[in-house]
UniProtKB/TrEMBL annotation, chain A:
Residues 36-156 form the Acyl-CoA dehydrogenase/oxidase N-terminal domain. Gene3D superfamilies: Acyl-CoA dehydrogenase/oxidase, N-terminal domain (1.10.540.10), Butyryl-CoA Dehydrogenase, subunit A, domain 2 (2.40.110.10), Butyryl-CoA Dehydrogenase, subunit A, domain 3 (1.20.140.10). Transmembrane segments: none annotated. This is Acyl-CoA dehydrogenase. Residues 162-270 form the Acyl-CoA oxidase/dehydrogenase middle domain. It comes from Fluctibacter halophilus. Residues 285-450 form the Acyl-CoA dehydrogenase/oxidase C-terminal domain. The lineage of its organism: Bacteria, Pseudomonadati, Pseudomonadota, Gammaproteobacteria, Alteromonadales. Coiled coil: none annotated. Belongs to the acyl-CoA dehydrogenase family.
Automatic annotation (TrEMBL), chain B:
It comes from Fluctibacter halophilus. This is Electron transfer flavoprotein subunit beta. Gene3D superfamilies: HUPs. The keyword Electron transport applies. InterPro entries: ET-Flavoprotein_bsu_CS, ETF_a/b_N, ETF_b, ETF_beta_N, Rossmann-like_a/b/a_fold. Coiled coil: none annotated. Belongs to the ETF beta-subunit/FixA family. Residues 23-211 form the Electron transfer flavoprotein alpha/beta-subunit N-terminal domain. It comes from the Bacteria. SUPFAM superfamilies: Adenine nucleotide alpha hydrolases-like. Keywords: Electron transport, Transport.
Amino acid sequence: MTEPLIAPLELPFQLFDVQDTETLLQRQRFSEHSRETLDAVLDTAEKIATEHFATHNHKADQQEPTFDGQSVSMIPEVKAAFDAYCEAGFLAGRADFDAGGMQLPETIMTACSGYFMAANPSTAGYPFLTVAAANVIQTFASETLQQRFVPPMLTGRFTGTMALTEPHAGSSLADIRTRAVPAGDGTYRVKGSKLYISAGEHELSDNIVHLVLAKLPDAPSGVKGISLFVVPKFRLDAQGEPAERNDVALAGLIHKLGYRGTTSTALSFGDNDDCHGYLVGEPHQGLRYMFQMMNEARLGVGFGAAMIGYRGYRLSLAYAKDRLQGRPTGAGPDTPAVPIIEHGDVKRMLLAQKAYTEGAMALCFYAARLVDDVHSLPDSEEREQTRELLDLLTPVVKAWPSEFGVKANDLAIQVLGGAGYTREYPVEQCWRDNRLNPIHEGTNGIQALDLLGRKLWQANGAGLQVLQQRLQQDLAQMKGEVCQNLSAQVAPYLQQFAELMTTLQKDLRTSALPVHLTNAQCFMNIFSSLVVSWMWLRQAHGAERRLAQGADSEQHADFYQGKLQAAAYYIEWELPLVSRDFALLQQTNTTCHNMKTDWF
Amino acid sequence: MKILVPVKRAIDYNVKVRVKPDNSAVDLTNAKMAINPFCEIAVEEAVRLKEKGTASEVVVVSIGEKACQEQIRTALALGADRGLHIETSDSLDSLQVAKLLQKVVEEEAPQLVILGKQSIDSDNNQTGQMLAALTGMPQGTFASEVQVEEGSVAVTREIDGGLQTVKLSLPAVVTTDLRLNEPRYASLPNIMKAKRKPLDVKAAADYGVDLTSKVKTLKVEAPAQRQGGVKVADVAELVEKLKTEAKVI
Ligand SMILES: Cc1cc2nc3c(=O)[nH]c(=O)nc-3n(C[C@H](O)[C@H](O)[C@H](O)COP(=O)(O)OP(=O)(O)OC[C@H]3O[C@@H](n4cnc5c(N)ncnc54)[C@H](O)[C@@H]3O)c2cc1C
């Protein structure tokens, strides 16, 4: 018997007590499903993650993929796991029935991905990127491109990548230099270098389909001049089979802190001026296409960060119950040593991890439900409102779990003490793997700018209005004692937030704006802490309701008590930290802004 | 050839069980339940025989409360063709289960009945043997290999000290051991297909079997907590401790 990847009660609680996932089954898109099929899908995910992914997480970290100048090799377990994932049908989980898919809700696919992320984030990278790339082609490319590339990507015969970043252009994609020139036959010739491309080369599939951002010769400057191309490693013959090698070359593998099992590649396109590419959709719309997919991609990053954080939490929890050290205050030296979990400071570190990671999970499931609603609500106005809320929350969903997932892993190392710092124990790998998440898919710095500079004001602040309505609706329902007490503690911060919004609105067109943008992280801290407090209130509400029903075993009651305690921890210990950020923003603090390069 | 596979709904092997405070039973309230792992191996073996063309139909039966239908669906998603749920809220012993299965065997006339050798909740290891006795079929228990031949089946059994192969004439009863096979996962498309496969429900009371339990549970207790180990400096100390503390030599 192995320790389960996710505590058995956690996902049912998140999905069916905190979220009302079962109501999705009434929507036409999901009407073929039932609670039974959803549970069965989750079971299969847990089994494959436990038996095929978790088993080589450590080995794949120790034995990185290598490149001998010809091909990339990696430990065989990665391929076995990838194949098991594909054979079970997960690649097509979200896709339409007509496309051989399962039409499963995003909420459920997110929950499934939780098992794989907790088990082995590096190996999970290969299928996850493939799904994301297939999704872009399916949504924006011509029917011909769809027919040729999507079906083999949904079975895993072809895998996918997202090739955006270049050596000199990461956060600022407007500056990319990769070019695409029409070849006269409707196809294009692509030339340029890409860097850090995950899964850019490997032997797991018959073909690799790169989605490449590049500029056409007549492109307007900036982000409005970027187009998107499908560039396969092997061009397809008339039957759609991989044939001639395309002019894409692996310039080298990149060696990283974590996520070592996923190849990170430097790719050269068109060294021999013969790299065939196929335009996706319209010219100059590439970044828009990519960004439409970003809500989902960023949800994936945030949830992955939450799950790696959660894994570290569970591992350090198990260790803390087992490790004997020290005695309670006042106990004599001859009394037996106690498990470290009985020490107050260790409880603090475990509670913080629980509050961060389960809070992040709740946030991601909330966002996943919004994705489902955007795709399946019958009323178009409600769909639009939901989209605004999702857009507003997306920078938070990406940045908060990735910041606090890493913090949780840091605490997991601390709980293990010296053991945590050694490679004999798995928590240092969790930390290294998770450290990527604040960096990719838009750095957390860029997320804070996006939130304060754009999303907050988009559509006249419609997203924030929807958020406030929903928060108030939730609060009105929370009648339990713990929820009442905790929401009373949140209320003054909501009041301060309203005051801050008045200030910011006033400053929008003044010289204070650039200072506020310098301090965007302060706003991110405030906004995300309030959103996560809300998520903890929702969990506390679910737990109080279950406890009031009294129909559960003692073990379950313990689980719900734990939720109430973690909600209290978040709201009493973490939320008050934003007082500093309120003050800095209200006083338009210029310390960072006025710092000069030469003064460093 | 038709194969009948009885499956039991049991607590998921990942769940750490707790005994109820009154020591009457294990607390199953809202606990995660699954197909008993040995039964899952039985389903897998039957499905493989079907895939090889040896079997033509795999019928799964489960006896118990309504929720057993979840485990039947799981078996259907693994590849069984149809399900039979015999509904009862009584908690039955091996003997009542075997008697109900005897009736099902009379109705369905399978050539082979494959069961798990035991269930991980009560560990009785009796139902298959009882069913064989009641129906007069030959039995091959603890199977680690099953070879169906013309009119017979060769079953390799895991016994103390090695393997024994027995040849049974069909129809026969086989019970599975852990090493017989490694069950597949229910793939997502098969989970959907399982929804459309037939599942009959019958009341246990309609089978005319006496369902009163012949076994009385007196008390359920958790196993004693394992004491932490100690490291000894050398063999001499070990021998000393075995003599004086453990008192085993
Ligand atoms: C392991 C790994 C996998 C990756 N996988 C992929 C992939 O599959 N495909 C892909 O296309 N890319 C991938 N990337 C690239 C990743 O998306 C970029 O690293 C990221 O976008 C940041 O770009 P950069 O590294 O050029 O950093 P820079 O853009 O140089 O940023 C450096 C620092 O400056 C800050 N900064 C930059 N601009 C601003 C600004 N305007 N205002 C305030 N602060 C700013 C950033 O927040 C950051 O702290 C991957 C990276 C890694 C490490």
